[in-house]
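User: what does the whole thing look like in 3D?
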Amino acid sequence: MVKIAPSILSADFANLERDIQRAASADYLHVDVMDGTFVPNITIGMPVVRSIRNCTDMFLDVHLMVDKPVRYVEAFAKAGADLITVHLEADQPARIAEALRIIGNCGLKRAVALRPITKAEAVLPYIGELDMVLVMTVEPGFGGQAFMGPQLDTIRQVRTIIEQYSPSCELEVDGGITPDTAPLAVQAGADVLVAGSAVFGAEDIPKAIAALRGAM
Ligand code: DX5
Ligand code: ZN
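Assistant: Here's the predicted 3D structure for the full assembly of 216 residues, as structure tokens:
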């Protein structure tokens, strides 16, 4: 069954503990970190991750949309992340590899993310070191955008690469996931669906999570 990772970007930050508890039936909790440089938006940093760590046992999937993430991965590991995702476009290949090494040495799971412009083959140099690949189905930076249909091809291509080189690596899809688009992403090969507005914008959060999980 597909895993669901609610993105707290669409939660009520003044009631974050309450919203996290409402999402407790999900598999991962997705934390979007934005620096105002790699993406135009600014969200949250290490202190918030530390506070989240203190109020939940959920698996914390931390998506770093920051420039030169090698500077910050150890701090996010210490703050309580379980998995850290760095963007392939955020630094030179050697420094992305170094960031992944640090994440692994901290005992965390390692992931890379692809902006919509980035080709699936870009994961090849790293695939043996990865626990997850994140395919963006919106331009990173904001919640509530529409799912980019052409990214289904990238999802399929990354799925093929994973099957060939690292079958235990998970494929996560992030952006515009709704009960309508979730089945498309799953059919294309997604193992994990990130959903912000479709979860925290819903009246009944557990029901919204179950609806996405029912995607076949
Ligand atoms: C966008 C973030 C997403 C975002 C998804 O840059 O990476 O995780 O929260 O939000 P929805 O599900 O509303 O598209
Ligand atoms: Zn995200």
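In plain terms: Strands lie at 3-6, 28-34, 59-65, 83-87, 109-114, 132-136, 170-174, 192-195. The pocket of zinc ion (ligand 2) is lined by residues 7, 30, 32, 63, 174, 194 (CB under 6 Å).
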